């Protein structure tokens, strides 16, 4: 006799929990897929763990946990009145009360209690349900979903603080009285995006956006000239003064001014009579990040045809996340990542080996995003409500809904304070952080690690004036290239352009956009510049026992499956002011870097002797003070900079900075130099015992701890990177032999590569603007602009920030 549904539910009440306020409740997206309550099968919330699963995946959770009771949430479209008014956002959030509303179709929501494995269904609400179930469901439905909490927390993380300049703000009595309307920039004709400086009453336009909109930077230029710190955006001042947009230039952020009423009254402003007419910076940021116009980015003058299907799934911008979206589209177009997280690992396999909470498991979320991007399940034409028609007459539009990488971002950014915010980030930094996390997740399983397909060895050869040499090796994921502007191939055109520019400036005229000529530098010149010998001044020669001039050249010890070239388009001008090089790089579809392979120690070459400090030497500090001062000006500690310079033999700022960033956490980083030179490295026996407990030999453990400054995590990495290490074959101290990382097992092959991906950037710095990816798929170029995917007509090969090449053969 079959058990009655209510009796079946009562028999499983022990597997039902009433959520506490601290519980994370997932109810907007499946933990192992991108299914939502709007998906065909709806969403099932485990009423014990509060994890959510799509229709095809809830059975897996039952098999793994035995939890039988689920709240089923299903959303279906409902008819929308034609005259529905737009709602303005009041907080910096999307899809929550008071957040951004883009007038999308509304949905009605239905709820059921479902008991597995037979999928016995009970309606909700119902007075017949046990009180525990009713209380649990009510708590789940009333709670803010964990997905939305994370998103909202990121948006509101940078809560406004009271400006330190507000209390004692100087105000100049120069007779300025600000009218309630009719404002205009004092230096141009701009009438929007205007800022009132609260010291002298100057009204000036705001910053120029990356796409050319906004102001002309007159407000910030005025601060640089005068140092007057605070400005308020006109049009955002109402009776609610806390909602006004006050910006502090020295603090470089939006702030609160508790005395804003007095500061405004000083210039005759009655704030109670002003009506809000301008978006605040936060609202404008929200508007730009959630409604990015296709026509403002790359290929804006082309009619791009949308593409749908496997491998053509867009990533929804969840708040300045284009740096992540562009990078992931290229990465998951490589064979190594496709094989690891899609072809060779199913969603079920990843879920079965994941911990109790799969939302925090990197392997699970990588597999989820791989299947989301590559399966084609979520790359289908979207239906959008025609503004003049009803939902019933919706038509297919040239867009797709894409997938929201919120869980993936939460996991990959968990260990990085910057990537966990909604600020724009450097795509290069994210790419390196991402590969580092993937490598760690696959530690001990090198045959599975897809990040190795990007890794290669670099060897620096330093020729001392004594005629002796030293070789230093390192491993890297990217080849960072300077752009030699003097190698431009269009110097004649550039000269004519500069003459025309000078003439027009003398006449008070502006240069038209179509008249601008940019330098064109061949990629071959950038690669040649990397390999070209360069002089190292103040190099300490262990052969001559004095400082001398040496020549350094670089080459690759292995050629990776995928070669990533980073173009150094952002440089530092005098005063460490960042500047973006306005230059085109002529990049061919096929390159050959065979000539860049390092030859290693050659017959007849003699190595520089290892440096052995005697008592006299130990008191000498061989430091290039110019290198130290440059590092100090970047904000680094003076002692740390000296150590970095010494340990890189005064090779240069970049080498010292790399050493510094790798040794910031060394336990002896703050020990004075005189105490560290000439002394034997003492290894903490407890740390040795810890590594032994991991299964490593004691001798190897000691070597690794010496090489890593006593840091257990770095020592573990060192052992994994030097699997062939032995006491007899390697010395972990700094010497010509010891500085050689293991690259024997890295992928290697010929030097011919084909261009398969480009990450390009629009904007004045990597911390603002927009990133777009172009990927060569199925013999054609495809543009990935967040959730917009289309056939590229004219890929911007000359404007790339990161170039991805695949090795041929």
From TrEMBL:
This is Ubiquitin carboxyl-terminal hydrolase. Residues 622-663, 682-722 form the UBA domain. Recognizes and hydrolyzes the peptide bond at the C-terminal Gly of ubiquitin. Involved in the processing of poly-ubiquitin precursors as well as that of ubiquitinated proteins. Its EC number is 3.4.19.12. The active site is at 322 (nucleophile), 770 (proton acceptor). GO terms for molecular function: cysteine-type deubiquitinase activity; zinc ion binding. Residues 313-808 form the USP domain. Residues 161-271 form the UBP-type domain. GO terms for biological process: cell communication; protein deubiquitination; proteolysis; signaling.
